Amino acid sequence: MNLEKLPIASGVDRFIDWVTEVCGPLFNWISMFIQTIIDTSVEVLGLGPSILLIILITLLVLYTNNWGMALLTFIGLLLIDNLGLWDAMIQTLALVLASVLITVIVGVPIGIWASQSNTVKRIIMPILDFMQTMPGFVYLIPAILFFGIGVVPGIVASFIFAVAPTIRMTNLGIREVPADLIEASQAFGSTTWQKITKVQLPLAVSTIMAGINQSIMLSLSMVVMASLVGAPGLGAEVYRAVSQIAVGEGFEAGLALVIIAIILDRLSQNLRTPVYERVIAKKWVYSFIILIFLGGYAYIALSSSAETGTKDDAYVGNQVDYKIVGIEPGAGIMSATEEVLKKYGLEEDWTLQEGSSAAMVAELQKAYDNQDPIILTGWTPHWKFQKYDLKYLDDPKNVYGQSENIHTLVRKGLKEELPGAEQILDQFYWTPADMEEVMVDMEGGMTPKEAAAKWIEKYPNKVDQWLTGAEKGEGQSISLIYVAWESEIASTNVIGEVLRMHGYSPELKQVEIGPMFASIANQKADAMVAAWLPLTHNAYYDKYKEDLTDLGPNLKGAKSGLVVPTYMDIDSIEDLVKE
Ligand code: PBE
Quick check: helix, strand or coil at residue 546? Predict the structure, then answer.
């Protein structure tokens, strides 16, 4: 069809820009609020030694379920502790509990409302369908813009994803209350409020609980996704394992998630009708637990208010909350930065937040607009240096190294099978300025393909050099593999277009960093132009170098390090050290 493409994307973009601007302060407030809940919850859950919490949860499971389940809980939690995943589990637990709390606070009233009016129900149900079928990933994008990176956008996204069952089941449960009971209550002259709270809700509780149980399970299923925007916890462990193809570690973290899921599921299913209800009344047990937690919160609140008096605002650590905004967990710059924290004695106080390159850029944009302090992992070539005034922090201990090259790696056997394509890949060579030009166009709204085509048209001489003497292709397919870093999106698209122009059929595949190297080594993909050497990707290169062919640099003078906006008055990584 020859119709012009509808401007849905740009419309949504503009809408989100508008919301970000108008509701900025509100979002900041919500974000701070949720963050505080999470932080204190994590602290409360981590107050005593882990065995204390293990025993407490086990007893609760015993009370609500049975011996077998309690034993399983005990062993399962001990296992999580033993695997070194305890802290991650607490983070996950806090995330899930917070998102469920919000789900109940928002979802139950909406469900009640829907149950009282058919019109409301007719409006809400399709919205719920939409919210549930839209991939959870999609919510993460605006969530980053609204709430920055970290656990908050993760919670918000999982709330949107998980709230539907609670609303539906509340509505359903109330509607299922037999009509004669309602008539009876009306006959005795009860008000609507009395009807809802004294008749409908109590009779609907078990259905509502079933809805909440589903919401818990859904938000648990969001934790891996939430880690893409920097939420810590078991999800981040899984994500890291994926990006480094650490099969065993991925399995451990997955197992921990399964254990948590089973425990939360059984607990929430039986909370209302605990097995040992006859032995001890519910209200005692639950009040006792609530009391313990409230005590914990009070303790944390008191001890932290005692601390805040001594904060020094001139010190950059306090300004940025001791956070460095990172990218994908497997990226070379992440391990380099961990090294930096160690070498400069910062590992105690500072944390490197994991997330993604896209989330990092969104966070930078947000801080830059408000002239807020921010420290990020950054690299050149990158368009951000064109768009914002940024500077690298000096690295007197030279952990990041001076500068490095980006190499082209191809699978063994490519040369024999597709000599022409291999030659082009071998001759592919350009400068940081070239690469940045493509990136700037992409950032300006062009698709990577368009930006690549534009660059190729502008620099025919360079492209000719890459093509010199290379045999033309006859439509053979060649797979190029890359990670979604802006620099590699640019280079891979350019070389892909050039191969296409020369008669090949390139297939671009985006993966995580570990799989990128592995797929060249085990010959599942043909080529990559994204190996930062000798430093950044050293570990991956060493692991796979025997099984691949290194065609040497396609770009010289790349660099990575810690980057801050020029409006910040620190100049060196040493300035991060507390006096
Ligand atoms: N980077 C960009 C990557 C390589 C390309 C510096 C973010 C990394 O750190 O692995």
Answer: helix
Residue range 13-17: mean pLDDT, rounded: 87
What is the spatial distance between Cα 277 and Cα 69, in angstroms, rounded to a whole number?
16
Instruction: Tell me the two tokens of residue 495.
Output: 């070389």
pTM for the structure as a whole = 0.79
Tokens for 108, please give them: 């139950």
pLDDT over 70 at 402, yes or no: yes
Position 229 scores a pLDDT of: 82
Residue 394: DSSP 8-state: B
Distance 141 CA to ligand 1 centre (A): 21
Beta-strand pair 390-392/527-533: unpaired
Kind plus residue range of the DSSP H or E element containing 463: helix 460-467
C-alpha gyration radius of the chain: 28
* CA atoms of 521 and 541, how far apart (whole Å): 10
Dihedral (Cα; 58, 64, 68, 74), 10-degree rounding = -10
Dig out the tokens for 199 from the structure: 């008749």
pLDDT at site 307: 63
- The residue type of 389 is D
pLDDT by residue (tens digit) across 302-312? 887 776 555 67
Q: How close is the Cα of 509 to the center of ligand 1, in Å?
A: 17
Return the ligand 1 atom nearest residue 532 CA: 4
**Residue count of the chain:** 579
State what percent of residues in the chain have pLDDT above 90. 61
Pocket test for ligand 1, best of 240, 243, 327 (most atoms within 8 A of CB): 327
Question: Residue 505: which residues within 8 A CB-CB, separation 6 or more?
Answer: 473, 475, 476, 477, 478
**222, 243, 232, 512: which is closest to 353 by C-alpha?**
232
Q: How far is CA 236 from the centre of its chain?
A: 8
Q: Which helix (H) or strand (E) holds 554?
A: strand 548-565
Report residues whose beta carbon is within 6 angstroms of any ligand 1 atom.
327, 331-333, 379, 485, 487, 532, 536-537, 560
| Cα 17 to ligand 1 centre (Å) | 28
Span from the CA of 73 to the centroid of ligand 1 (angstroms): 41
For residue 59, pLDDT over 60 is answered with yes
